[in-house]
Amino acid sequence: MNAKQFDKVMTAILYTIAGIIVTILAALILYILLRGLPHVSWHFLTGKSSSYEAGGGIGIQLYNSLFLLIITLIISIPLSMGAGIYLAEYAKKGRLTDFIRTCIEILSSLPSVVVGLFGYLIFVVQFQYGFSIISGALALTVFNLPQMTRTVEDSLRNVHHTQREAGLALGLSRWETVLHVVIPEAIPSIVTGVVLASGRIFGEAAALIYTAGQSAPALDWGNWNPLSVTSPISIFRQSETLAVHIWKVNSEGTIPDATMVSAGSAAILLIFILIFNLSARYLGKKLHARLTSAK
């Protein structure tokens, strides 16, 4: 077999493997959607969940997932931006930098259950936040921060060095160059990474079982006191998310229509994750095209 024939055979094998993987993924997505979407209705999306009676919804769990996502991003984006800028623009090669990168690699490889147990011991017990949104958000920050930091760092490093040299040549300081030249150039990649991380946060369950709680108390939509445990904007109340609700329904099975609720919830969760992933690609291309045209 000559080189050209070998190349064709290996190419065919690679295409076959890729096709099998895509087929399995597409079949899994279609199975979840076809199994769950028939049970989805407006009442299901907005109604309250039930522990023992059939016909419950996921309204509170869906709101909790979105609210927890917002709180987590508010905490993690500034931290990841600061860490990424330091590692990409200011950190010098040495033992300290190597130690920081090693810590990031270790944190990024931790199972979410371990992060959940860590969050339970530190935020729930030690800091006495209890099972709450803030405990879940802090645990998810620990879980998601390494990935977001590496995304920011890689995005900044991919900016060509001539951009920095141009800023410095115009008399800008190093920080002004980073702030007004480098970061705007890296925004498309950073936004893409943040949106992808949002999908990961939205679908997380294991870390939240031990931190955010497994119950979804009724919310008083007329109460906007952030310190009240019935307020929709309170970060100190328990907040069973959609992913945790799916786990709980499947593990306990105390409601007669547990299978239908689980299938419908899984379909909605999958749709949101697909939206996050598709939005990341769209926003990245849109921002990149806008920046390119502005030049």
Automatic annotation (TrEMBL):
Recorded GO CC terms: plasma membrane
Subcellular location(s) of the protein: Cell membrane
Keywords (A to Z) from UniProt: Cell membrane, Membrane, Transmembrane, Transmembrane helix, Transport
PROSITE patterns listed in its UniProt record: ABC_TM1
Mode of membrane association: Multi-pass membrane protein
Stated name of the protein: Phosphate transport system permease protein PstA
UniProt source species: Streptococcus criceti HS-6
Family: Belongs to the binding-protein-dependent transport system permease family. CysTW subfamily.
Keyword Zinc-finger (UniProt): no
